[in-house]
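Notes, p. 3: input format for complexes.
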Amino acid sequence: MEPSVGGAAPLVLVDRRDAVALVTLNRPDAANALSKGLVAQLAETFAALAEDKDVRAVVVTGAGDKAFSAGADLKERRAMTLDETWAFLDELNNLMNAVAVFPRPVIAAINGAAFGGGFELALACDLRIAADTAQMGLTEVRLGIIPGAGGTQRLARVASVAAAKELILTGRRVQAARAYLLGIVTEVAPAGALADAALRVATEIAAAGPLAVAAAKRAIDGGLDLPLADGLALEAACYEEILASDDRNEGLAAFAEKRPPVFKGE
Ligand code: COA
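Output follows (266 residues plus coenzyme A):
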């Protein structure tokens, strides 16, 4: 694994596995808490990966076996003024939004505790796969605050309003098995097999037509808050974009020739 950015302080590691990028939050001694430095490096990493068309799916995980991310760095937070806290929240929200609209799918491999901003990062991803030992929660009300990086909005959309209210209003932490029942995670894997499980899904996505995958992500996300007729119009617009692509012709040709397609993203 190579430090992605940041020179002497590799707070984020990026490991390329063919068309999949494995991004690791690398502050294991601080439960991968989201310090200003980590947030900045993550933002730079996602910006760089967005430009790299050879990356067709991203997996995000945390270093170590304890935490995906324990959320905002509460030690750093204590020393911040209100203005600084507000500015940091802006940075955090920019990061979450960049992950959410990342042009290819992003999968969170939740390897341990995912609390507060750590869970919000996972919620900004397209899919979540958890280790059977993982726990997650939006625990902010227990600290006298509320989720400030999209949690109140994204948990209600990913799971349900009821799940969001239960978890957010109590600040309760749930185990991976319950998160699966609530629809928050799509798969629970034995801790030692989590990375493989996430990379398997990412590799499956990476083998599909990249333009199609990107368009499908935009159609799903963009349609969430639209009336059905507008959502269907968005789907049609996304379909139209790829109708004239080489990849579509390649998909049809490969089917006729009984061979795997070779998509170029064109
Ligand atoms: N910010 C800054 N440091 C954090 C942190 C956070 N959010 N969460 C954990 N750490 C630090 C701990 O202080 C500890 O540092 P230390 O060794 O210098 O004391 C280190 O990370 C390891 O944490 P520790 O609690 O000893 O490990 P653990 O495996 O027993 O528990 C957690 C890990 C994540 C379950 C636990 O630390 C926790 O619950 N953290 C608080 C998470 C939280 O409430 N986040 C909400 C933010 S809104």
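The first helix runs from residue 36 to 51.
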